[in-house]
User: Which sequence fits this backbone?
């Protein structure tokens, strides 16, 4: 599982949450990524760490802890691959 | 090899004999240039004719001789622009010019002061840089868009290079052209307005008239095999618009100020994606109320 505590938001990605959706703008590339409700929750609460995120998502969105854990891990990997999150 | 000037490079130089100046006003934002040689002053004035102003400029740049090369030209020939801090000011650099800006004044150094095309590169890019910043100071912003006025209201078609901005403009000969490259958006008495700018993409900028027009709608250009309009969530709309705001040279700080403004504009004005086939039929979708 990707530990979100090892990940940080890329300072070259501007973001803002509008009407419950976080939108990420990759300043150099001009790309735009809009996150859904759960993605927005993860993005906004990144500092809590992957375990706590999965636990809270499991409680808030009625998914099993196992599903939440794998979904969070996958989502963090996606964000890392897209460059929205940086390691270290 | 790239060469970066230091503060000494921008020491003020006395203006050449007979040199003059001019002031350009864009949507109420004014920028002056002084020390222009008599041989090119008329051409500069002609180029910016609809935007010449007698107002006291908010920022004045003095021209002086510069190096032959600052930044190397990339193999693809695209213009390279870099901004970096220098002392209390900031420097904008490209191949043939370097401009230092601090407060209400600045120094522009050009590889040639006699050759209009070379000089224009420095003046034009300095103007774009400063207008984008002054706009932000006055709670507006500059957008990479084609701006067209139909029935007295401005329609903006925004996108990155190659999205079709100039195509949209060339397909609209009956509309007043604000710009086919960069449009200034400002709020006046609670209404978002679009301003004509001297900034051109690929279309000749003849017959431009400086003016401000109420903003009717913003369309993100998407080339497609058929014409249709797609609604955007407010979050996506704001993100798409922000991604087309130029001069993101100090991204984190500038974008943090820009994002709320862009969101406010997107709340006030419809923002949609326009999938279009590069035919004139797009107007029936973009402005049905203004299309016979």
Assistant:
């Amino acid at each position: 599982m990707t530990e979100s505590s090892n990940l940080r938001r890329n300072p070259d990605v501007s973001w803002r949450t509008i009407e419950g959706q976080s939108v990420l703008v990759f300043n150099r590339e001009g790309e735009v990524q809009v996150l859904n409700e759960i993605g927005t929750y993860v993005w906004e609460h990144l500092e809590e760490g992957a375990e706590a995120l999965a636990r809270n998502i499991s409680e808030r969105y009625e998914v099993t802890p196992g599903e939440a854990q794998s979904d969070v891990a996958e989502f963090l990997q996606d964000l890392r691959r897209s460059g929205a999150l940086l390691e270290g | 090899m790239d060469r970066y000037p230091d503060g000494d490079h921008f020491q003020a130089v006395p203006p050449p004999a007979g040199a003059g100046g001019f002031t350009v006003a864009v949507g109420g934002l004014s920028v002056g240039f002084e020390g222009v040689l008599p041989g090119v002053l008329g051409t500069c004035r002609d180029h910016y004719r609809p935007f010449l102003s007698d107002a006291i400029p908010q920022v004045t740049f003095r021209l002086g001789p510069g190096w032959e090369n600052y930044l190397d030209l990339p193999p693809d020939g695209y213009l390279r622009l870099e901004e970096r801090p220098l002392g209390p000011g900031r420097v904008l650099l490209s191949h043939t010019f370097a401009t230092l800006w601090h407060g209400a004044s600045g120094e522009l150094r050009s590889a040639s002061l006699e050759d209009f095309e070379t000089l224009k590169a420095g003046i034009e890019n300095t103007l774009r840089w400063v207008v984008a910043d002054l706009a932000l100071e006055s709670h507006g912003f500059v957008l990479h868009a084609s701006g067209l006025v139909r029935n007295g209201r401005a329609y903006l078609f925004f996108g990155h290079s190659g999205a079709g901005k100039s195509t949209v403009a060339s397909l609209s000969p009956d509309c007043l052209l604000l710009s086919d490259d960069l449009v200034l958006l400002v709020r006046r008495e609670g209404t978002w307005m679009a301003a004509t700018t001297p900034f051109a993409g690929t279309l000749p900028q003849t017959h431009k008239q400086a003016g401000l027009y109420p903003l009717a709608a913003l369309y993100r250009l998407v080339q497609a095999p058929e014409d249709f309009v797609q609604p955007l969530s407010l979050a996506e709309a704001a993100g798409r618009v922000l991604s087309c705001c130029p001069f993101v040279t100090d991204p984190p700080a500038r974008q943090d100020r820009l994002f709320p403004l862009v969101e406010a504009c997107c709340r006030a004005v419809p923002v949609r994606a326009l999938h279009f086939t590069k035919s004139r039929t797009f107007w029936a979708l973009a402005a049905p109320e203004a299309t016979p």
